[in-house]
Design brief:
By secondary structure, the protein is mainly α. The protein has 2 domains: 177 residues, no CATH class; 302 residues, no CATH class. The chain is built from 22 helices and 2 strands. It has a two-stranded parallel sheet with strand order 1-2. Helix 13 packs across helix 14.
Amino acid sequence: MLFNSYEFLFIFLPLAFAGFFILNKFKLPLASRLYLLGASLFFYSYWNPCYIFLILLSIVVNYTVCQGLWRGQKNKKILSAGIIFNVLLLGTFKYTDMVIETVNLFSGSGYSLFNIVLPLAISFFTFQQIACLVDAYRGNTKPCSFYDYALFVSFFPQLIAGPIVHYGEIVPQLQRLRTFVFNPSNISIGLSFLFMGLFKKTIMADGIAVYVSPVFEQASAYGHSLTLLEAWGGALAFTFQIYFDFSGYSDIAIGLARLFNIKIPVNFNSPYKSLSFQEFWSRWHITLSRFLTTYLYIPLGGNRVRIPRQLLNVMITMFLAGLWHGAGWTYVCWGGMMGGLILINRLWKKVARPLPVAAAWFLTFFTLIFTMVMFRAPDFNTAIEVYKGMIGINGIALSENLLAKWGFLGQLLADHGVVFTNMKPFWKRNDEIKYLLFCLFFVVALPNSQEIMKRYFKPNWIWAILTAIVAVFGVLGLSRVSEFIYFRF
């Protein structure tokens, strides 16, 4: 079930909300938690009922291992067994076909693919529970009931695309009485985040998506080459699409959780304002970066080892980050690109002065657009075709109207490979350039949702009217329902 759907907003959410607080009204906190657990499991199984057994198996096995660790059995074999179970579960469903395709490619064999349909959120709830096992082994968590643990894993606002929450962030909230008290302030905050996120998804992300698919489809088609502006336009459009898509989901998740008096961590903090790729990863998918740092990079040695080993640790971590995002070598390559840029950033700090702020931002953002091609492309051939267009191999195409207007300059450009066609000027073509400039202004100059709430939120009629306006636009955008990009990771 999608957050940006009529059945979620007008059927599931009202029923989940009403049932939760009606049971609380009758002083039945246990029944309320069980009701919310049932609603969350229904939410998960709505897309494919069969996979309810998968998430329940994962919950039961991990809770059993946690119970052993909580009881003082701090045996590394128990922890290892739990981690191996999670890795095998994730690997079987997400990477089996990728491994078979790779073997077929390099060995010339013809093994058949299983064509496994990836279960929703398996990457998220697997990492979430691995973190829980490690925290239990370290003695950082306290025991809880099975239903609280199951709700911690399956709580629907954060289940599908994060954030990757920690046990200690959610379970204590489920165990306190004030969580079950109707709180108008939290309702107001929750609805504000919900509708800001819905606006970002249905108006901003889905609005710019129409400029993305044609470019990558053309790059995938045999014999169709992208010119410079077409390639850069498509790459830039996707860079904004994934921003608003993921930022929108993160806001919706925070808002939905707040409706139930639960606070979940911020997962997105204006990453396109970053001045380096190290800063970018402290702002983009914050909880994934936290997980990889805490449970992979630091155990590998982190910054405690010599520089060559630090650099290796960074690359291992980022390759895994890429692989986590998708079962394809393009994702692994994207992770490697990100790791390489972080290494360059670190080495630059050691040997040179910091760049001016404007130059640092431009270089980071410009390079980020380039890397996003690899993230979006379905295969390497498509990515290569887009890159060829971006570096000008396929030439530059401009409107023939400009040839006469530019006179000598236009003729000079034509003599040096610029093609003038009967196409509309780029800045007039479907208003694409205007949309891109608006998106750039939105992500760089305007405050993000957290900043808006901190600076301007007041539970009064003016705020209610503004929220209602944003809500109307967000709901009107539901006519073009689409999955969140992180929906199937």
